[in-house]
Amino acid sequence: RVAPDAKAYDAAIHACRIGRHWTKALKLWKDMEKKNLIPSARSYMIAITACEQTNVSWKRACEIFEDMSRKGVASNVYAYNKIISLCARHGKWRPALYFFRDMASKGIEPDAFTYSTTIEVCDKCGKWQEALSVYEYMDANEVEPNIITYSKAIIASARANKWNHLENILKAMNDKGLVPDDFTYFSAIKAYVRDKNFTKALSLFEDMRTKGMSPSVKTYNLAILAHGKLGQWLSAVNLTKTMKDSGSRPDVFSYTAAISACAHEDEFEEAINLLDLMKTDGITPIDSTYNAAINAAKSKGIQYVLSLLDDMHSKGINLNANTYATAMATVKKANKGELVFKLFADMKKRNIKPNSKTCSLVINEYESCGMWKRLLVEAETMKKMGVNLKRQHYNAMLFACSQVYPIPVSEVLNLLDEMKGKQIAPSKISYANAIRALKNARRWSKVLEMFEEMQEKGLVPDDSIYFSAIKAYVRDKNFTKAVSLFEDMRIKGVSPSVKTYNLAILAHEKLGQWSSAVNLTKIMKENGSRHDVFSYAAAISACTHEDEFEEATNLLDMMKTK
């Protein structure tokens, strides 16, 4: 009995490949390994293919390829393409790039397929810099790319926002008379849209049409969106007609983008015509379509908005908080903010839980109308509907409470306590609104308490907060503390207002510090603050209390000059 040699195994493995007996091919290859027989390059390639066909780990295929190099079996571009392609199919960019670079180290020149496959796997894995470096290597070695390589490089450039690369590659293709396919154009146009370069996106779209390319529906949709962003509503609408004329059927996103374009330019009638047209074409609008139409209805009033909401409801389209947020923002833009309350009532009637945006719109509208009691009632309603109010909502409620008379002090304090209870740390704005309310209510001790609290939390007060705290000390006749606080704000780089300067001048006057009071009027001037009558009056009063009549007269003369 004669033991089979390497050639016999090679022939048997080749026969397995022809018969597609991949498991047997791998078994024979393993037998060769055990017997220390060196397979031929062909057997190595069949073993790698067998790994792929039998779902053996891609890592095992890489190990087999590496073994080929270790045993001195000559490889070629076909072998490298095989292993790089396998890595690409499994989304493994690192080993694919490793084998690509290994080719160069062994003096094997990659072909267009090698470049295309390596660029594509790096791009798909989000490694755009690596993808572009492969293309640059190709360019440096004067290898002629084919249309596939160009396309893969364009897609990678688009995703990496490498505009110079993208434009250079497009120019190179154009110089060679090569035309990118629709997906390549789509990727490039999408990148420009994402970068908000809508003019360039449309230029590229027109370029593909000039070259006789038929854009896909997705590419048309990007162009419609770009026209809308540029305020070109008519061009957006016309593109939906062009699609039909060219045999492409607009989809729900085509119409939604066109309706949105009309909405941005207040073309309500055209938006509704498109909405009707899409229904005629048998395309069911989605919530974002209606949102765009609602946005277009801002010039038509609440009845149109509500009719669109009813239409959505009758068609079983999900009415959600985003839709109502759009409707509320629409009526507010039309200076009909009072209709926000009707829309919120409609939400409650339909038992739709508000989101953060709808809450903000409702709360802000009540605040701007000075309806603080109603605002707090509706805030309670929101909480009962399962809404977790956020810091900005509490800030708006605190501000509303600070703008009315008499000041609802207990509500202000309750709101702050509620924030803390919900682990919502009050911000500088929260404290500013609360302190403003307490100042207006003349609750000076609470003003100082809040002031100390915010400083303990590392929040730096602004001028209005310092003013309230300094005023509290002045009212309490603690002039030394008032002056100390004024100096503290200047040290912290907070620029005092004229009103705050005036309080400090008054405090110096009460302390008999006429020179400091006068100096503050000079500092005001140096800092660009314009004295008012109260600045001079306080400084003159400080001088007269200390019998500094000459200085008082100078200030009086200066005041008249001003």
- Strand tally is 0
Question: Structural class, from helix and strand content?
Answer: mainly alpha
| Mean pLDDT over the residues | 87
The main pleated sheet reads as: none
Low-confidence segments, given as residue ranges, are none
**What gap, in angstroms, lies between the N and C termini?**
123 Å
Query: DSSP strand (E) fraction?
Result: under 5%
Helix-residue proportion: over 70%
Instruction: Evaluate the radius of gyration.
Output: 37 Å
> Count of helical segments?
32
What is the overall shape? Answer: elongated
Notes on the structure:
The protein is mostly helical. The chain is 73% helix and 0% strand. The protein is built from 32 helices and no strands. The longest helix is centred in the first third of the chain and has 14 residues. The chain starts with 5 loop residues before the first helix and ends with a helix.
